[in-house]
Design brief:
The chain has one domain. Strand 5 and strand 6 form a beta hairpin. 31% of the residues are buried. The strands form 3 sheets. The protein has a 3-stranded antiparallel beta sheet, with helices on one face. The chain is globular. It has 125 residues and is α+β, with helices and mostly antiparallel strands. The structure holds iron/sulfur cluster (2 copies).
Amino acid sequence: MRVKIDKTKCTGCLICEVTCSLVHSGQVQREASAIRVKLGHLDYERHQPVVCRQCKKMSCLKSEGMETNADLRQAFFWSNAHQRQVDCAFGALFAHGDQLVHCNLCGGDPECVKSCPTGALGLAA
Ligand code: SF4
Ligand code: SF4
């Protein structure tokens, strides 16, 4: 499962970011969200939510002893932020202080998808 994005429906309200940070850190703090919305200049570009695509290799995260994809998918906070960001092909890992935040799908019940008021976020297999 992964979070699927339809940027044509995104209004840039940032409710998804607020929800993710609240669920995982108890604070409203954009830097603590594993989904980030690149706000576009609407004269010539759309807003673009970005989140981990749950790719099969997850090679960006495989350097800290956790080798099974099930383990990798469950962790939200990670160390060694810079190198992992470089290694993610999709630019979907985000720094939060000296840590990294990674979408863990809220353990199987993605809160950002439920909170998005426009249907810009959905689920894909
Ligand atoms: S909650 Fe939905 S509409 Fe709002 S910024 Fe996030 S993806 Fe876009
Ligand atoms: S599914 Fe959960 S962890 Fe992933 S971006 Fe959405 S709220 Fe954050």
